[in-house]
Automatic annotation (TrEMBL):
Gene3D superfamilies: Vaccinia Virus protein VP39 (3.40.50.150). This is Methyltransferase type 11 domain-containing protein. The lineage of its organism: Eukaryota, Fungi, Dikarya, Ascomycota, Pezizomycotina. GO terms for molecular function: methyltransferase activity.
Length: 230
């Protein structure tokens, strides 16, 4: 059976994280979830997990360039886990084609980009959103976000503000950011970025949890939308 011959088939998967520990967990789960990987992947990674480069990292650190460094490459590169910083840039999609013959040209964009609890954890949320927008297929592609931040009620937000520094030092995220404002501002500045839906599910979460769907309009779609009827 050729790759892409089944309707709705996931042609490739690329996971990106700055944490080697999280990628180790992801490796275990993807090995269990993807058919055939148990036969070709060791139960445990033998090689030491590389360290992500930073401004103070030594010469043995990696991933400074845009896209990071793969720590899992399977099924002709169609299943990847990448150690990298999405705030610096995202890896391009892998080539997809018949695994028994020449692969097609690399896809320029992803069909879907999914991010969980990232806007609270990076120094520049707008840049992260712009990076995701740059890698998703215009018009038909989607960016799906699961986030947490400021809620509906002032008393909850005051509590979030009070304990935000301690929470950041322990978990690395600012849980009191105004996520809706960040996303809507990005939609005004990132070319083509558009909010499809923004929901705050679960009344017991008091508006602190966000499910957000974004898309990027192509230049032709933007131009068409600006044409006035005679």
């Amino acid at each position: 059976m050729e790759v892409g011959s089944v309707e709705g088939e996931v042609l490739s998967y690329t996971g990106v994280d700055v944490s080697g520990g999280m990628l180790s967990v992801a490796r275990d789960r993807i090995r269990e979830s993807v058919p055939g990987l148990k036969r070709i992947m060791r139960k445990r990674r033998v090689e030491a997990m590389p360290r992500l480069a930073s401004a103070t990292a030594g010469a043995d650190a990696v991933g400074l360039d845009e896209g990071g460094v793969p720590v899992v490459l399977a099924l002709d590169g169609r299943v990847r886990l990448v150690l990298g910083d999405a705030e610096r840039g995202l890896p391009a999609p892998p080539p997809v084609g018949n695994t028994k013959g020449p692969v097609d040209k690399p896809a320029a964009k992803y069909d879907t980009v999914i991010q969980t609890f990232g806007l609270c954890s990076v120094a520049d949320p707008a840049r992260l959103l712009a990076n995701m927008a740059a890698k998703v297929q215009p018009d038909t592609g989607r960016i799906l976000l699961l986030e947490h931040g400021r809620g509906h009620y002032d008393w909850i937000n005051r509590m979030l503000d009070k304990y935000a520094p301690a929470h950041f030092h322990k978990y690395g995220c600012w849980w009191n950011r105004d996520i809706e404002q960040l996303v809507r501002q990005a939609a005004q500045t990132v070319p083509g970025l558009e909010v499809v839906s923004l929901e705050r599910p679960g009344w017991f979460q008091a508006g602190t949890t966000f499910l957000i769907e974004l898309r990027v309009k192509s230049q032709s779609a933007q131009a068409g939308g600006n044409v006035k009827k005679a």
